[in-house]
Amino acid sequence: MNYVIDIMLIAIGAALINNFIFYYFVGICPFIGVSRNVDMAFGMGCAVTFVMSIAAFVSWTITSLVLIPGAPISAYIGGFFMTAEAAQKIDLTILSYIIYIFVIASSVQFVEMYVRKFFPSLYKSFGVFLPLITTNCAILFACLTIMSHVSGVENPADAWDLGRALSLAFFGGVGFTIAIVVMAGIREELDLCDIPKPFRGAAITLVVGGILAFAFMGFTGVNSGLRKVLTFDQPVAQVEQNASAQDRNVQSRIDEMRQN
Fold first, then answer.
1. Which end of the chain is more exposed for a tag (fewer CB within 10 A), N or C?
2. Residue 198 confidence class, pLDDT cut points 50, 70, 90
């Protein structure tokens, strides 16, 4: 039950409360550059969500099996050149940035080939922004966040497993999609408005982005409220079970009295 609650809180936090764009201000470049049309923004959001999920899966696997101290693969290979105790202390997390960037770039190339083959019109509308997903710092931010919950955790039981890592990545991409689609819808309406010349273009976009960030601040504290509600479910269920048991006892006593 606690595991399900953790997954739900991570998902809601990544999508709404701690939205990558409006809370951490990462991934701003595609958020500004590809938010002129709702269809294009939705396609970009789906592509970023897919790449973020694949990158999180691969980076979590590499981090757990190779990079962190005591990782099985690095300890096994190191055992050929040093003592077993020294091999358990091999720490390759210094290579995390290089490996994560390589993983993200490979995932983007895969998505680009897929979109170009099966959705050529969408590929043309993306233009240069599709390869630029490689430099989307929101994806690298997700990988580094996952690494911080896998490596350097004092209690190994608190380290994130693959389910938590994928939950953060997927719903972080969903939050990115929500943000960019909302912005695209507003910008389509702004094209019909008479905006003063100094505010046209990127200026009004940044102003609207700031207002949206304030709006998303309204979700602050929702996670703590949800945790209280969800953790109270179990005692309530126990109370209901006890109440039903008491009702059964009362009914059995009534039946005994009727028989006597």
1. C
2. confident
